[in-house]
Amino acid sequence: MIALSDATPLPRTFFDRPVLEVAPDLLGRTLLRTTPEGQIAVRLTEVEAYDGPADPGSHAYRGRTARNSVMFGPPGHVYVYFTYGMWHCMNLVCGPEGRASAVLLRAGEIVEGAELARTRRLSARGDKELAKGPARLATALNVDRSLDGADVCASGDIPMRMLNGAPTPADQVRNGPRTGVAGEGGDGDVHPWRFWIADDPTVSPYRSHTPRRRRG
DNA sequence: CTAGTGATTCCCT
DNA sequence: GGGAATCACTAGC
Question: What is the pTM of this model?
């Protein structure tokens, strides 16, 4: 059991701020996942901000639907989506309520429960790959749509909570275009809202958006 | 290390 | 109908 540097829970006021403020502030902090099999803790190293219906890259861009409704709710809740037919990715909703902004958790370092995480990530070559990528992170933590809407700021025994951890000094925070979002990474760099910790080995490799050719 | 490609299903148009 | 906030695998440098 690795001692967490600061296991104080993050209060809802942490998330009830503009998403571009919250996203870099999440780097270095700890997500604690509790399951019947045990606990897994992840030190976040890479995130992306999505800022509501005005952001073309956001799932909220075309308004509220059954899938994204949690984004339109109060901050401090988890938005989980299913994509590419196989994978889940998790976000934390930010404030103010109704803006539909959220932070996608893209990568992290497993600092507790690596053995348990590995049972769900058998293809990972080493521990650094356990949560190197948003779907890998969700898989390692056993996160799926059943956790959509979960409140990470609730009291008592809850499946997921954010802990204070060790916030990253501003001079160690990097930012750039978001991964896999059309229009970013080229000339545009429209929204350089991907944030990561400089030189951290668990940050996922950057991939610009490439349109897929139709089968046939 | 990078680049290319198939997998697989849900959701919105 | 067709794209999707991705991954694992392969080939090649």
Answer: 0.96
